[in-house]
Amino acid sequence: MKKIAYITNHSSFFESHISPIAVSAKAKGFKVKLFCGQGGSKIMEKYAKKTLKKKNIDVSKHKFTASGINFVNEFFIFLNFFNSVKKYRPDIIHAATPKGIIYGGLTSLILKTKCTIIFVSGLGFLFSNKLNFYEKIVKIIYINFSKLLFKKKNLHLIIENKRDLTYYKNRFDLEGRIKLLNGSGVDLNKFKPSNKLKKKIVLMPSRVLKEKGVTEFSKATKILLKKHKDWRFIVLGSLDYGKSSSYTKKELQELKNDGLIFLNYKNNISFYLKKCSIVCLPSYREGFSKTLSEAVACGIPIVTSNIHGCKELVFNGKTGILCEPKNHVSLSNKLDKLITNKNLRNFLSKNGPKIAKKKLDVKIIVNENISLYFKLLKK
User: Fold this and answer.
1) In the chain, fewer beta carbons within 10 Å around the N or the C end?
2) pLDDT per position as a tens digit, 307-337
């Protein structure tokens, strides 16, 4: 029995983005195990733990965190992690998220693992935020480590959008070893159109982080509520995410004063999607937004930033509208356009599910990954 070691920063990312692949791999005869660090959100990790237990996926949790940069501590944490993976003796290492890629990649080099898959779900925080001194050091380490890792034979890179694809192609020799996929896919049995009457709700399904555009959404809400007092503007996502770009309690209260409603993280996001009329994500940078993919599959019109990882989900104006990134006035205007034009919302709603069936079905993503496992093992 061939073994796969999945390595990520935290179990909640694995559960939402990779677990369908792992479940399929088990059905194909692979033994799978997740090695992960401490989660950024307690509520998200609690749900992931419960779900992965139901899926019968073995989890080995370690002390590393996504934001940890104390190099002495990281060394000892890595040793413990490395010994755990070494004992498991995987044939394939499938790593995702920055710390997961560093830990998983380094382990694959030392153990000379037969096959390595690196899943880059967007270049993320290190490439979309202002960095402090230590974060700049981490970014330099990440880039230089990538140069070393990508020299490894039988390694394959999976990318989610064209901008990131260009970035890696221009900097590293990955000829024939890099693949572009449309995100992590959507379960179309779960995320599908609903015939129920939509409520006057603009929903932002996202972790409450500054780079997700929560501030811009708040400012746009303040403008729109003056004109559309019967509409509600809701943020659905974890409030406890441990990151330097999280909001303080005082900052959150100011956002609420603008009229935003915060519902915290919910594990049944499809329930909330089917109730709202518009989904909004004014993010600064994404890999390939999973929440927007789910909204498109449900036939919910979207308003999102004109950036890679988001604009791909608009499909040339067939499923939503683009706004200028980091611009609350532009965001307000685009939302206002959809709020006041029900016919446009209906037009965008009809296109989404058809496109999702062709391009966003999780089965497509799962099959691509499973095929890659067999291809690399054959080599």
Assistant:
1) N
2) 989 999 999 999 999 999 999 999 999 999 9
